[in-house]
Each structure stands twice: as structure tokens, then as C-alpha cells.
Design a protein that fits this description.
It is a peripheral membrane protein. The protein is α/β, with parallel strands linked by helices. It has one domain: 3-Layer(aba) Sandwich (Rossmann fold). Helices cover about 30% and strands about 30% of the residues. The structure holds adenosine-5'-triphosphate.
């Protein structure tokens, strides 16, 4: 699905990524963890072709970046980020916002085809809020808006779904609802890449974890292998104990800094 080989990125004086090699195979779902500024979003932008590496090779869904039309590859990728969320029009009805996902643009200036509308409604129904479809996006709670983003990203049946902190800003209840929805992605034929600051968001759907520190991979592999106290300490500079419960890792901080 994704093969990054020795990828480095330099911007100005700053080396943001150093020799990152990461392979995501079909059937795997990855979480990327790391401190603020460690390079997680940059890594996602390289995967989606919004940034180009200074050196190294990136292959996504069989296409080698630099030798393909990235816009075509992006049609197979769903991407959710805070910056995209901020671009959505708050007074548009929810179903219309979801429908725009079919075309990878932000607003409609013409009539929306009936099949697109139907699919948007079906996705909203599946997520349990078909009743909100006609409401303006701006009237929804933050948690509901995140789910709208998810529905929007699924409109074009992506093969790869990239989620940049989709649970940021949600209260415990809303977060669990969103995680439930994310857990259900396992029924779809899509590989999920998920960036978060919260280890307990690693629901059973996820199979693999990459830990990034100052632009370097500290660890990458099966979550059970990577999520150990030693690697967490190396990545976050914090003493912590990990405990697994209900198929999820929970962290107890022993001492920080
Ligand atoms: N165009 C740029 N020029 C210079 N530095 C940049 C540029 N883009 C990103 N950076 C720097 O690269 C580092 C990595 O940024 P990135 O946004 O990928 O981190 P992150 O792990 O996603 O952080 P956070 O968890 O805070 O969102 C940051 O220190 C950032 O300031």
C-alpha cells in the first residue's frame, strides 16, 4: 500500500525527516505516534504527495511519486485533518458537505447528482445520524463534525484513509463514539493510517505502530512489539508503564521530563 525508502526532508536549514523507511502492507492499519513537532504531519503530507522528499523513494498504491500524476493517486486516498475541517462551509447542509467527498472539492456550484446524494445519505445513516443530514454543518457538535469528515472521506471508496488526529478536541464520550466508527473501518477494504497523541486511541483495528522522534523512526512494527515502556520512554522522554485492557494499550506516567 505504501513503501517509503530512506526518505529525508530538508526545509531551509532544518532537516525535518531523516532516512525514514516504512512499509504498509495490505491488511495492515498503522498508528503514528510522536511528540509535537516530531514530523508526523509531514510524513502524512509526503504520503499524500502534498510535499516531496529531498531524497528517498515513496511508492503509494503502486505509484512511485515523481513518476506519476499525484492527483490521480489522491483520488484513491481519503484524508482527514484539522486544516481540511476548517475549510468546510458551516452553513452548507451536512449531506452536501459529505457529497463533496465524491469529487475532492469543497463546495458544489451545480446540482448534485442523485446517486451522489443517495450515497451521502446512506453513509450518514450507517453512522447513525441520517436525521442530521439536512442540518447546516455549523449546528453540529465537534464530534458529529468529525464523523461528517469521516463520511466525506469515504464517499469515493478510498483504498487508503489517512486520519490526522481525528479525535483531537473531543470529550471522552464523543471520542469513544468516533473510535467505534473508526473500528468499523475494518469491514471496508481500506488501509488506515492514524496519527494521534493518545496511546489509548489504539483500538483493536490497528495492527502496527510507528514511533517517530525528531524526524527519525524510533520503532515500527506490530503494535505488541513496538508499544513497550522502553520505546515509549525513548520517544516521549518520559517514564511510563503500558497496560493492555480490552485490546487497547493504556499508559500510566511514572515520571516526566
Ligand atoms: N515548511 C517548513 N519549513 C520549516 N520547518 C517546517 C516546515 N514544515 C514543518 N516544519 C517543522 O518540522 C517539524 C515537524 O512538523 P510536523 O507538523 O510534521 O510535526 P508533528 O509531529 O505533526 O507535530 P504536532 O504533533 O505538533 O502536530 C516541526 O518542527 C515544524 O516546525
Amino acid at each position: 500500500m505504501i513503501k517509503m525508502q530512506y526518505v529525508s526532508l530538508v526545509r531551509g536549514e532544518r532537516q525535518i525527516l531523516h532516512d525514514v523507511s516504512l512499509t504498509v502492507r495490505p491488511g495492515e492499519h498503522w498508528v503514528i505516534l510522536g511528540r509535537n513537532g516530531s514530523g508526523k504531519t509531514t510524513l502524512l503530507e509526503l504520503m499524500t504527495g502534498y510535499q516531496f522528499p529531498s531524497s528517498g523513494r515513496i511508492e503509494v498504491l503502486g505509484n512511485v511519486y515523481g513518476q506519476c500524476d499525484v492527483r490521480e493517486v489522491r483520488k484513491e486516498i481519503g484524508y482527514i485533518s484539522q486544516s481540511l475541517m476548517e475549510k468546510l462551509t458551516l452553513h452548507d447542509p451536512v449531506w452536501e458537505v459529505v457529497s463533496t467527498g465524491a469529487y475532492a472539492f469543497l463546495r458544489f456550484y451545480q446540482e448534485i447528482p442523485a446517486d451522489v446524494r443517495g450515497k451521502a445519505y446512506a453513509l450518514l445513516e450507517e453512522m447513525g445520524f441520517g436525521h442530521l443530514a439536512e442540518q447546516p454543518l455549523g449546528t453540529l457538535s465537534q464530534g458529529e463534525r468529525k464523523k461528517v469528515m469521516l463520511a466525506r472521506a469515504l464517499m469515493h471508496d478510498p483504498k487508503l484513509l489517512i486520519l490526522d488526529e481525528p479525535c483531537a478536541g473531543l470529550d471522552l464520550y464523543e471520542r469513544e463514539l468516533m473510535l467505534e466508527e473508526i473500528g468499523r473501518l475494518g469491514k471496508r477494504d481500506v488501509a488506515v493510517i492514524y496519527v494521534t497523541h493518545h496511546i489509548e486511541e489504539i483500538v483493536p483495528l490497528f495492527t502496527h505502530v510507528a514511533l517517530i522522534k525528531e524526524g527519525r523512526l524510533e520503532g515500527a512494527g506490530l503494535k505488541e512489539d513496538v508499544l513497550n515502556s522502553e520505546l515509549i520512554k525513548q520517544t516521549y522522554d518520559i517514564d511510563a508503564r503500558l497496560e493492555w485492557e480490552s485490546g487497547r494499550p493504556w499508559i500510566k506516567v511514572i515520571s516526566g521530563g
